[in-house]
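Here is one chain, start to finish.
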Amino acid sequence: MIEAINKFDHQLFLLIHQWRNLFLDETMPFITSKWIWIPLYAILIYLIWKRFGNQTIIIIFTISVLILLSDQTSNFIKNEVARLRPCHNPTLQQLITTPAGCGGSYGFVSAHAANSFALATFLFLLSSAQKGFSNVKKRGVWALLFPWALLICWSRIYMGVHFPFDLLGGCFIGTFYASVLYMVYQMVPKISK
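Its structure:
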């Protein structure tokens, strides 16, 4: 069973990884970089502050704990499972391109996927529960954050550093922790604006 899943994962990886062009070869290293997204994070913090005022400190603290948990859980699982990244897999190395190098040895589960889905899920849950937050705004949050998280996941396959199931595992971890920490956040007394 595990062998069949791995084979399917390899085939799916190769199928997606072959969708290459020069523009994406230049663009994807930036998309997969954590530094390129700092302006987005600054905008998100500003929007949270505009909406939640003094509550922003608790929200930012919760998001920090969330990212720490999803990131460190991903790294722990990576080292325990020890599944080679596609770019380190001897059977695939000659078949793939890695525009920006390979990174660490192991790929299951993806911390990029875990962190981006953790943030997207938490902010979606936070905005969905807001009184006076229209359905259009809620859909807007969803329409911006989840495609962003999926773009990061796609970049990881494109870069040759993750199999699809590495990303799926990361998405699960991020979504799980976001859901749990959102429930914890709801129990914290609110600071008045």
